[in-house]
Amino acid sequence: MDSPKTLSMKPNYDIDYIKQLEHNSRREEIGRNWYKFSRNSLSITGLIVVVAVIIIALLAPYISPYPAHAGPFTDFANAKRPPNLTYLLGTDQIGRDILSRIIFGMRSSLLMGVVVLTLVVPPGVFLGLVAGYFHGTWIDTLIMRITDIFLAVPPLILALAVASVLKPNLWNSMMAISLMWWPWYTRLVYGLATTLRNEYFVTAAEVTGASTAHILFREILPNTISPILTKMSIDVAWVIIIGSMLSFVGLGVQPPEPSLGTMIADGSKYLPDQWWIAVFPALAIVVIVLGFNLLGDGIRDMFASEES
Amino acid sequence: MTETSSPLLEIKDLYVNFAVYGGDLRVLDGVNFKMYAGERIGLVGETGCGKTTTMRAVLRVLPTPPARISEGQVFLEGRDILKMKEEELSHVRGKSISMVFQDPTAALNPVFTIGKQMEAVIRNNLLEERKNDSRQVRSVAINALQDVSLADAERLLESYPVQLSGGMRQRICIAMALTTNPQILIADEPGTSLDVTIQDQILRLLRDLVENRNMSVILITHTLGVVRELTNRVYVMYAGSIVETANTERIFQQPLHPYSKGLIATVPRLTGGGIANGIPGHIPNYHNPPTGCRFHPRCTQVAEICRMQKPPLIEVEQNHSVACFLYSSEQKVNL
Amino acid sequence: MTAALLTVDNLKKHFLIGQTGSALNRQPVTVKAVDGISFEMNAGETLGLVGESGSGKSTVAYVVVGMYQPTGGKIRFLDKDIAYKDKRPKELQKAIQIVFQDPGSSLNPRHTIRQILEMPLRVHQKDKNLLEMVIYLLEIVGLPPETMYRYPRMLSGGEKQIVGIARALATNPQLIILDEPTSALDVSVQAKTINLLLQLQKEFNLSYLFITHDLSLMRNVATRVAIMYLGKICEVAYTSDFFSKPLHPYTQMLLSSIPVVSEEEEALRPKKVISHGEIPSPVNIPKGCSFHTRCPFAMPICMEIDPVFTQMDECHEVRCHLYLPKE
User: How far is A184 from chain C (nearest CA, A)?
Assistant: First the structure.
């Protein structure tokens, strides 16, 4: 009997051609994703709003008309001015330019969204992956029961409690929000991973002897990315809202540093006569939140139609 | 016989397009189909060749958009279904044509008992004055279940779909389809999701039922063996059009179209002898279908004309039509 | 010939699916998916393991490939005991591979074909040039290199299944378990896939444990066929014997149920055994011979005693009271 062939033959191939193929397919993939995302004009609107907010936040000191007004500043002579050409959105009760303060307020709101999600998503997702993959074992029980405990405490109360124990400022309120936020990612990923672990491609990796890390991060994780991204974009908005709430009740960003929540809180005392003090920061929150939500829908569309 | 009577169901030049990313796909490319009362027809072809789309177009249950019936007529006893109003249409769907689906699990609602689901169907079709007579409705349901050889019908009516086996669910679906005494039963891959011994029982049941009631059947399937067991006429479909039709016996003995030949040759035989490699290539992409005969890129006997023109469906022998230029010379002799 | 490639001896796999009884008197409910089956496989052979759903055929496959630990019995591969190992050694993961039924779920939708094929190579062929190996794998299964950067959703069902075969080949295995590899495909695509499998078998001297419900397919592919019913083998024989002299009533029932496409085949089908009844739930396996509830030849003894195997011909064994020598 001939000795059987083994997989050791060298194929003929043109490495440049292969590289070209890889390059083309990557470009094609990006093009296809962009097409799916851009089919809905609302997603584009969301993207534009989000990009604009990010740029404005980054360039705050350069584009705001009165950067000094974001700090300890008073000008009682110009207090409570309605919107005019010098102060486009008017001034507040101590004469600070509302537009400038909104721009700086966006900065801290966005910073809060980004920092909280960076703190929350990796551990939340990791715990969800591990618990989901080891579904039915003690690891699952341990992780998910702890998650349940965190989920059982009303989130705002928890954040309030933490924020009131710690010194109230931007960083501590971010810590407080992060502490209550990770279980949602664990839950989300856990649900996905318990289904995905039964897919045959995971089994194929297992019987071939792939490492657990490979299975968790290379096989399962990529299939959870789209719901995670969608949730993240919507959560940025939520974090901003909750951050504003904390500021509103005085547990977040401390004056004189501007925050949209504090601005609304202060401005609400002057409603309805000096409406601009509260209404414009509120509108800013609405625009940011809407922008991120629309972006989230677009991301979901992009991935959803890919699977069908 | 076929020359004298008029067909029960006739599809004339049916074209259906689907609007999707990248263009308007012509999924049905001129389907022609005739069915006489009492005929049992098998509609065969590979997945994605338009069998189910054709039947959905007939019942007008295609999702529109993206689908659009761009041309054609579907006559049921001389009336064009495609021009009917919604009211008439529901009459056709309920009473004239019934459908049995491939997956009996998906066809039954898991949260209602079998009885509830059957009664809903029966109520829709009973005469007005008898509608509210629940004893009447129930007895119709029980009779229907007994007709499909299900014992203990009373208890079955109280069960939920999950409590039943796949074979029983398929029987119940058949029973529901038959309660209205339809003229035409469309069966989409009945029993193919079931085990072979159960499938055999279902097919025997179907055959008995349609023979006793002189019902006409359209069987949609890609399992050729089932077609041979159950039907007396076969339509072979490829990429949106009928490429060959003949009596069942005839087509299995002497298929003419290269596609039918390939399809029959690839079926693994109980007699052994290996499996023919069959038809090279695969079903064309509807984004960019081949010109002329849509089968030509896979055809082993392709000629120049096949790339330019679509061959018409021509009767080459009595009751045996084929859409292929290989046989068009014979047609000239006949003329 | 030396020792068999794979020996399965009295293999059992029971699943605990719940409990019944009162809180004080809990009774475990088990499904005896595989309940004492034995068979041998030689190198280069295809064994067709045929059965209906619920027969336990896939469980056998999953135990052999190491997805499940057996409840009892022995599995020997090249004369080494491989059951009861917590994690299989690398050589074994390399030597036994599997191709799954559902081409949709067996390829990671977020990976390119290149990534999919690199997975087993990363584990087992680290020293080699991965890109070269991927191209070579695609070449031997007849897919163009352009396939590499496609995602599974861009391939047809048949192509996906071929990628699944290429992935199984990547570790250079000796035994491949084929779990209904073509049941989701059209016949024309099935034909091509099967012929590719047969060609690869010759080329690389592979052994196939072919799990299927399709007897007609096995007639053309298998060296030997074994029929399973409710976790046990009823009949095993060389393919030609099996189809010319089917002995077990269940085999005859299966054969008579197959829809065929020619008269020659019809002549081969046993006429007398018409299918009736359904396969009982594996939670409640009938006493005695488990087939007696559907068997047209059932005798009183069948309801009491589970028959043992009778050797009929060389390598033709049947487990039925009809063929047991009378005492």
Answer: 24
**pLDDT tens digit sequence for A101-152:** 889 888 888 888 889 999 999 999 999 999 999 998 999 999 999 999 988 8
d(CA C265, CA C258): 10
Q: Do C214 and B203 touch (CB under 8 A)?
A: no
Cα–Cα dist A141/A198, whole Å: 19
Sheet holding C232-238, edge to edge: C96-99, C175-179, C207-212, C46-50, C224-229, C232-238, C316-318, C310-313
| Contact between chains at C107 and A306 (C-beta distance less than 8 A) | no
Q: Are B294 and B282 in contact (CB under 8 A)?
A: no
Structure tokens at C306: 């589970």
Q: Which residues of C touch B275 (CB under 8 A)?
A: 190-191, 194-195, 217, 220-221
**B167 neighbourhood in chain C, CB within 8 Å:** 278
Contact B272 C239 (CB under 8 A): yes
Q: Is the peptide bond before B66 cis (omega within 30 degrees of 0)?
A: yes
DSSP B130-177: GTT-HHHHHHHHHHHHHHTT-S-HHHHHT--GGGS-HHHHHHHHHHHH
Is the CB of A219 inside 8 Å of chain C's CB atoms? yes
Q: Quick check: C255 and B195 CB within 8 A?
A: no
Spatial separation of the C-alpha atoms in residues C288 and B333, rounded to whole Å: 68
Interface of B with C (CB under 8 A): 46-47, 165, 167-168, 195-201, 203, 222-226, 228-229, 252, 262-264, 266-279, 282-283
What are residue A201's phi and psi, to 5 degrees?
-70, -30
Subunit contact A4:C204, Cβ cutoff 8 A: yes
Count of positions (residues) in chain B: 335
What is residue C182's DSSP assignment? T
Give percent helix, percent strand, percent coil of chain A, each to the nearest 5. 75, 0, 25
Pairing of strands B79-80, B314-317: unpaired
Q: Smallest Cβ distance to C123: which of A13, A201, A209?
A: A209
- C262 contacts B196? CB cut-off 8 A: no
For C269, name the nearest residue in chain B, comparing CA atoms only: B270
- Asked whether this complex has an ipTM greater than 0.90, the answer is no
Residue A147 CA to its chain's centroid (Å): 20
Distance CA B276, CA A301 (A): 44
Q: What is the 3-state secondary structure (H, E, C) of C238-298?
A: EHHHHHHCCCCHHHHHHHHHCCCCCHHHHHHCCCCCCCCCCCCCCCCCCCCCCCCCCCCCC
Assess C262–B contact: CB distance below 8 Å, yes or no.
yes
CA distance B122 to B137: 7
Residue B209 CA to residue B230 CA, distance in Å, equals 11
* Residue type present at position B157: L
What lies within 8 Å, CB to CB, of B288 at 6+ separation is: none
User: Do the beta carbons of residue C262 and residue B248 sit within 8 Å?
Assistant: no
* Residue numbers of C between 138 and 167 with CB closer than 8 Å to B: 156-158
- How many interchain CB pairs under 8 A, B with C? 129
Whether the Cβ atoms of residue B256 and residue B244 lie closer than 8 Å to each other: yes
For residue C250, give the amino acid letter: Y
Tens digits of per-residue pLDDT, C201-238?
A: 999 999 999 999 889 999 999 999 999 999 999 999 99
pLDDT band at A3 (very low <50, low <70, confident <90, very high): very low
Quick one: tokens of C122?
């990363």
Q: Is the pTM of this model over 0.90?
A: no
Please give the residue of chain C at the shortest CA–CA distance from B254.
C262
**Which of C161, C180, C187 should one mutate to test binding to chain B, selecting the residue with the greatest count of B CBs within 10 A?**
C187
- Report residue B223 as tokens: 């399992």
